[in-house]
């Protein structure tokens, strides 16, 4: 009966289009009321879920991403990538994938990457390369999902807060899987170019042009180097690295590129507070949901069911299926708090590395950002304005989304069954 109340009310609330955080919280409250648990436990669990020192990194990384988005970084990254590969078949589309990876390393957010790059790159893919609007829009949404895999990643911070895995190790382990996802999308671009007879429309840039655009964009490239170098060099903790990245972004925006004015800071801070607040509310409500699963025996039953396979390869197939389905309905942070506490003890018992498991989960949930019906990146992309054309609806993006998800799932399987792609960089 407890299972029915918890998951039944959660599904009903989702169908009624109640926000995911409220759905998680209310379904947990209904279950606690049925179990006659003192309601004071609700506030305690929501607060304890959010009041973790490590999670302090989230608002700082969000602030850093918003600052860099307003600092003219995206234009400089686009110019550099365009000078490098813009002369190839499907050049602007390839540029979109490359820039989404780089920009994701600054923002750590898929929707933010779509919003920052879409107005420039989607029209360019349509007008200069000749891609269909629905494919161009979906491609950018798919490429932007890599943002939660390429470090710094808010999803990795959330995973670390649940399991205790080292954030620095997770950040490092996300580099090559993120690149692999980008390569998978580039392969898809080449296939589509050949099928639709898309030809190059730009001459190859000179070495001097490439050097100039690289110098203009170098401050963007330095940010992830500072973050990862500082963490692994023992200079600062991941939370301190987040604060350093925000300060670095301010210096670049105000004094180097001079794209940010003092009057812009208020709107940047307000946007950052809104984003951080929504993430932390989700974390608090998801923590309560996870608490109910644990105390009411739901987690133990699920662990016994998952562990029944006694085979890590079968287990990995099962968790991939669960995460891919979950990504269709809930966001990455919520899915982490719902499923990771149940799954990671089984993963440890089967000898799966904790960092590798975190990368698998995050790649799955990255794909979930572009899977209908609740692919958050698709909804942000559907709101992009394309000059002279109507907005592309989420319905129109379903077919190209399946194409993009298809190649990303191939990358997921490689990451899942070849641990060296993720944790090889850590010497494991």
List keywords for this structure.
single chain; 428 residues; mainly alpha; 21 helices
Secondary structure: number of strands: 0
Oligomeric description of these chains: single chain
Overall outline: globular
Q: Compute the number of helices.
A: 21
Instruction: Catalogue the unreliable spans.
Output: none
Give the helix level as a range of percent.
over 70%
Give the biggest beta sheet.
none
Chain-wise SSE layout:
Elements: H1 2-15, H2 20-34, H3 40-50, H4 57-70, H5 73-85, H6 91-107, H7 110-129, H8 133-144, H9 154-163, H10 167-173, H11 175-196, H12 207-232, H13 238-256, H14 265-295, H15 298-307, H16 312-327, H17 332-349, H18 354-367, H19 376-382, H20 398-417, H21 420-423
Written description of the protein model:
This protein has 428 residues and is mainly alpha-helical. Helix 6 packs parallel to helix 12, helix 8 packs parallel to helix 20 and helix 9 packs across helix 18. The longest helix is centred in the middle third of the chain and has 31 residues. The mean pLDDT is 84.
């Amino acid at each position: 009966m407890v299972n029915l109340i918890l998951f039944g009310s959660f599904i009903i609330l989702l169908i009624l289009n109640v926000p995911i955080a409220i759905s998680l919280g209310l379904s947990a409250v209904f279950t606690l009321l049925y179990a006659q648990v003192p309601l004071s436990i609700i506030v305690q669990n929501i607060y304890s879920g959010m009041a973790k020192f490590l999670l302090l990194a989230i608002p700082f990384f969000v602030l850093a991403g918003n600052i860099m988005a307003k600092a003219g970084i995206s234009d400089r990254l686009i110019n550099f990538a365009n000078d490098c590969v813009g002369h190839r078949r499907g050049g602007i589309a390839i540029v979109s994938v490359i820039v989404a990876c780089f920009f994701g390393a600054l923002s750590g957010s898929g929707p933010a990457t779509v919003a920052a790059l879409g107005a420039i790159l989607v029209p360019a893919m349509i007008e200069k390369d000749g891609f269909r609007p629905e494919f161009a829009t979906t491609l950018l949404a798919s490429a932007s999902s890599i943002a939660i895999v390429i470090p710094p990643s808010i999803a990795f911070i959330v995973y670390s807060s649940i399991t205790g895995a080292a954030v620095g190790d997770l950040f490092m382990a996300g580099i090559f899987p993120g690149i692999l996802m980008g390569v998978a999308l580039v392969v898809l671009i080449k296939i589509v170019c050949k099928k639709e007879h898309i030809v190059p429309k730009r001459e190859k840039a000179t070495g001097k042009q490439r050097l100039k655009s690289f110098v203009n964009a170098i401050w963007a490239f330095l940010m992830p180097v500072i973050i990862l170098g500082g963490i692994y060099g023992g200079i600062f903790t991941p939370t301190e690295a987040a604060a350093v990245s925000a300060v670095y972004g301010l210096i670049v925006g105000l004094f180097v590129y001079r794209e940010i004015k003092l009057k812009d800071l208020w709107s940047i801070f307000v946007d950052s507070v809104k984003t951080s607040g929504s993430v932390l509310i989700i974390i608090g409500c998801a923590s309560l949901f996870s608490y109910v699963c644990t105390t009411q025996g739901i987690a133990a039953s699920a662990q016994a069911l998952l562990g029944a396979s006694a085979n890590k390869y079968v287990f990995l197939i099962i968790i991939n299926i669960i995460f891919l389905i979950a990504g269709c309905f809930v966001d990455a942070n919520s899915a982490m708090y719902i499923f990771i506490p149940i799954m990671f003890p089984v993963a440890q018992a089967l000898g799966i590395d904790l960092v590798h498991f975190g990368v698998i989960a995050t790649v799955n949930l990255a794909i979930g950002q572009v899977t209908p019906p609740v692919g958050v990146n698709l909804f942000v992309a559907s709101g992009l304005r394309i000059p002279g054309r109507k907005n592309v609806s989420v319905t129109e993006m379903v077919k190209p989304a399946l194409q993009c998800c298809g190649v990303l799932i191939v990358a997921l399987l490689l990451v899942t069954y070849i641990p060296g792609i993720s944790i090889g960089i850590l010497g494991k």
